[in-house]
Specification:
Helix content is about 30%, strand content about 15%.
Length: about 550
C-alpha cells in the first residue's frame, strides 16, 4: 500500500505517517507450547534470553499453556510492549539502542511511556554499518562512505538499487575484497576462512569447477568482479517503505551450528579468518554488562539442574580470572591443523571457556565462585568440528556494575587493567556471605600464553608483594602443579595480578603454552579444555584440604 499516493496534495502528513511506519525486518519463529515446555527451557533451546520471549509475547509471568503460539524472537526483538517499571532509558540500555534513536523511531514527544505501549526496537548498528533513513539513496550513501556504488552493492549483496528505511547496510568491508590463492589452498579452505560458501565463491568468480591455481585472485564479494564496468549511475532509487513479506521471515536460516552457542548476538564469521581479524561490540559497556549478567544467570540456572558432585568446597569463595578479554585478546597464534591448513587461536576466547568450565565444576563441589571478566554473549562453547576456531570478539567487560557506566572502559592489559581485575575480585569477595568464605578465599588466573622460553608443560606461576603472600601463592601453585600432569612445573614471576591480591592465596595457571603448535591445537578441543578445568579443580580440592 502506498500511503503517499493515497494522500494527494498533502506534503507534510505523508512523511509523518511514513516515519511511524518504519518496520525493521527482523525474523522470528513461532513455537506452539506443549505440556512439557517451560519458558526457561525455550530460552535455552532457542538460545535467547527468557525475558525477550516474555517481552515479545507481552507475558506478565512465566506461566505458559499448551496450545499457545509464542513468538520466538531469534534474531532480536523488533518491538516490545512496555511493562510496569519500564523506562525509556532502561529500554535503551536493555536493547543497546540510543535514547535519541528510540525517540525518533517511535515518534515520542517525551520520555514518558505507558504500560502496554508498543515500542519499536531498531536492531543495533555495528560500527561498520549504516542505517538507511527515509529519502536516502544508495549513491549518496556510497559517496558519504568513500565507496563506489559497485562496492557498496557488493558489500551488501544487492543486485539492484532498492533500499528501505530502517535497513542496515555494511559500509566497511568485513573481509578483504580480493584474495590471492596461496600454495596448497583449496576453494574450500578459502571459503571456510572467510565464513563463505564454496558455491558463492564459485558464482562470484564465475568458476566452472572447484579448481583454482596458485596466484589466482578471487573476489570475496558478490558482483565485485563487474565493478569496473559499473561506470554509469542511473537515477538513484530513494529509500521507500518496504513491508514485511513472508519471504523475509522464512528466509531466516536457523542458528549456524558450528558457531558455538551464542546468546544476544553472534559473530559475523564462523571461524577466526586471520590473526588480525577481530570484531568489536556494537553496544555500550553497560548494555554488555547487563547482558553478561543475564548470560551468567542462565548458565547458573543450567548448572543448578545438574547433579552436585560433593560439598568439599563449601565455605570457600573462589575468584576465577579469565586472563584476557575486552580489548586485550592475549596471545593470537596461527597454527596448522593435521592437513597443514592454518588455524588461528585467540587466547582470551579459549581461557574464558576453560574458566566457565572450571566455574561449573567448582559450583558442583559446593564452592561460592565469582569471575572478574564476563562475556555478554556466551558461556561454555563446544566447537562441533575440529577446524572450528572462536572468533576474536572484543566485547567482554569487567564484572563490576559501577565501572560499566558511560565512561567505563573494557578490559585492557595495562597496569590499570590488571588493578581493575583485583578491584573486581575484592568486591566479589566482600559481597560473598561470611558463611560462603568462612574457610577462605582463592584467586586463580587462567592463561594460555605464547612463551617460547618456557617448556611445553602446564606452568603455575606464583608471586606476592611480601614474603607471606609469596609463600601462600607458592604453596597453592605447588599443590595445583601436582594435579596438572607430569610435565607441569611452578615458577616465580613478577606478576602484578598476584601482588596485593585480595584473596588468601592466588596463582596464575598457564593451561597451555601456545608457542608449541600442538598445545595451541589442543586448546581448541572442547574435551581437552574440560580436562584442563577438571585438573585445576582437582588441584583446588587437594589444596583446600590442606588448609
Ligand atoms: Zn595470557
Amino acid at each position: 500500500m502506498n500511503l503517499v499516493s493515497r494522500l494527494p496534495g498533502c506534503r507534510i502528513l505523508p512523511l509523518m505517517i511514513l516515519m511511524l511506519r518504519i518496520n525493521f525486518i527482523i525474523s522470528a519463529l513461532t513455537h506452539t507450547v506443549v505440556q512439557s515446555d517451560t519458558l526457561y527451557g525455550l530460552s535455552i533451546h532457542y538460545k535467547i534470553p527468557l525475558n525477550w520471549i516474555m517481552r515479545a509475547n507481552n507475558l506478565r509471568n512465566e506461566k505458559i499453556y499448551p496450545g499457545k503460539e509464542l513468538v520466538i524472537p531469534v534474531d532480536g526483538i523488533g518491538s516490545i510492549y512496555a511493562m510496569s517499571g519500564d523506562t525509556l532509558s532502561g529500554i535503551s540500555l536493555e536493547f543497546g539502542v540510543e535514547m535519541e534513536e528510540l525517540r525518533r523511531i517511535n515518534n515520542l514527544k517525551s520520555d514518558a511511556i505507558k504500560v502496554g505501549q508498543k515500542i519499536r526496537i531498531p536492531p543495533p548498528v555495528r560500527p561498520n554499518e549504516y542505517r538507511v533513513a527515509i529519502g536516502d539513496n544508495l549513491l549518496e550513501i556510497a559517496r558519504q562512505h568513500n565507496l563506489s556504488l559497485g562496492q557498496l552493492k557488493a558489500y551488501n549483496g544487492l543486485d539492484n538499487d532498492t533500499i528501505h528505511p530502517g535497513q542496515t547496510l555494511v559500509v566497511r568491508a568485513n573481509r578483504p575484497e580480493t584474495y590471492r590463492v596461496q600454495r596448497g589452498e583449496s576453494l574450500w579452505v578459502i571459503a571456510k576462512r572467510f565464513g563463505l560458501s564454496v558455491a558463492d565463491l564459485k558464482k562470484w568468480n564465475s568458476l566452472g569447477s572447484d579448481a583454482i591455481r596458485l596466484g589466482d585472485v578471487l573476489t570475496l564479494f558478490p558482483g565485485m568482479s563487474g565493478i569496473a564496468s559499473d561506470g554509469k549511475n542511473n537515477e538513484p532509487t530513494l529509500a521507500s517503505i518496504k513491508t514485511k513479506t513472508k519471504g523475509d521471515i522464512s528466509s531466516k536460516s536457523s542458528t549456524p551450528e558450528n558457531e558455538g552457542d551464542y546468546i544476544f548476538s553472534s559473530p559475523r564469521v564462523t571461524n577466526q579468518p586471520s590473526v588480525s581479524y577481530w570484531e568489536e561490540s556494537r553496544v555500550s559497556t553497560l548494555t554488555d554488562y547487563h547482558r553478561a549478567k543475564q548470560v551468567l544467570g542462565e548458565f547458573r540456572r543450567y548448572i543448578d539442574t545438574m547433579k552436585t558432585k560433593s560439598n568439599a568446597l563449601r565455605g570457600w569463595h573462589i575468584v576465577i580470572d579469565p586472563g584476557h578479554g575486552g580489548l586485550d585478546p592475549g596471545a593470537i597464534v596461527s597454527v596448522a591443523d593435521g592437513n597443514g591448513n592454518p588455524l588461528v587461536i585467540t587466547e582470551d576466547e579459549y581461557v574464558y571457556d576453560i574458566s566457565m568450565r572450571l566455574y561449573r565444576i567448582l559450583v558442583l563441589h559446593g564452592a561460592s565462585v565469582s569471575l572478574t571478566i564476563l562475556s555478554p554473549d556466551h558461556h561454555i562453547r563446544n566447537g562441533v568440528n575440529a577446524r572450528q576456531t572462536f572468533v576474536n570478539l572484543k566485547n567482554e567487560i569487567y564484572n563490576e556494575e559501577s565501572h560499566n557506566t558511560q565512561k567505563g572502559w573494557r578490559p585492557v592489559g595495562t597496569i590499570e587493567g590488571l588493578d581493575m581485575r583485583k578491584t573486581v575480585a575484592s568486591k566479589e569477595i566482600a559481597k560473598a556471605s561470611s558463611g560462603d568464605k568462612r574457610r577462605g578465599t582463592v584467586f586463580v588466573s587462567i592463561h594460555a600464553d605464547n612463551s617460547p622460553d618456557l617448556p611445553a608443560g602446564k606452568a603455575i606461576l606464583y608471586d606476592g608483594a611480601n614474603d607471606r603472600e609469596r609463600e601462600n601463592s607458592m604453596n597453592l601453585a605447588s599443590v595445583l602443579s601436582s594435579h596438572l600432569g607430569a610435565t607441569s612445573f611452578i615458577k616465580h614471576q613478577n606478576l602484578r595480578i598476584l601482588q596485593n591480591n585480595p584473596a588468601d592465596a592466588a596463582a596464575l595457571v598457564e593451561v597451555r603454552n601456545v608457542s608449541y603448535s600442538n598445545n595451541a591445537w589442543a586448546l581448541r578441543s572442547p574435551g581437552l579444555r574440560e580436562q584442563d578445568a577438571l585438573m585445576i579443580a582437582d588441584g583446588l580440592l587437594a589444596w583446600t584440604k590442606t588448609r
